[in-house]
Amino acid sequence: MHSLKDAQLTQSVALAAAGASVSTTPLDLTQTPPDEHQFEVELALPALPELADAKTVSVALEDSEDGESFAAIPELAALVVTGSGGIGSAAATRRVRLPSSARRHLRATAATQADAGNLTAHKLTLALVF
C-alpha cells in the first residue's frame, strides 16, 4: 500500500454551490501512465454535515490528452456521498489505480445536487500517493 504524498501532486478545491460542479486544477502526469502504475490516486471528501437528506455529491476522475478537454474515465466509478438522518454525510476517501487507457492530464470534478445545502466551506482533495 502506498502512503507518501507530494504537495506538488495534490490539488484541493472548494465544493460548488448546490446544483453546480467544480473541478480541481489538473495534474500533469508528464506521460501516459504505463500498464504498471507506481502510484495510486486518492480522492478525499471531509464530513459534510450540511448535506441535505437524500442529496448527493458525486466526484468523478477525469482525464485529458491536451489538458483542456476532459472526460470521465469510464473504467472508474464515481465517488458518491449521500446526506441522511439530518447529519449530512461522513468523510469519504477512495484510492484507485489508473487504467492503462488513462491519458496524461488528470483532474477530479465534484457535482453537488440541487438543494443539497451550502457545502462551499468544504474541499475536495485529489492526490497522487506513492
Description of the structure:
This protein starts with a strand and ends with a strand. Helices cover 0% and strands 43% of the residues. The chain has strands at 5-14, 21-23, 27-28, 40-45, 56-64, 71-72, 79-82, 92-96, 105-112, 123-129. The protein has 130 residues and is an all-beta fold. Strand 5 and strand 6 form a beta hairpin. The protein has one domain (5-129): Jelly Rolls (Sandwich), CATH 2.60.120.1110. Strands 2, 3, 5, 6, 7 and 9 form a 6-stranded antiparallel sheet that branches. Strands 1-10-4-8 form a 4-stranded antiparallel sheet, with no helix packed on it.
Main features:
single chain, 130 residues, mainly beta, Jelly Rolls, six-stranded antiparallel β-sheet, four-stranded antiparallel β-sheet, 10 strands, globular
Identify the CATH class: Mainly Beta
Helix and strand pattern: EEEEEEEEEE
CATH architecture field: Sandwich
Shape annotation:
globular
Radius of gyration, taken over Cα atoms and rounded to an integer in Å: 15 Å
Proportion in helices: under 10%
Q: What is the rounded distance between the termini?
A: 9 Å
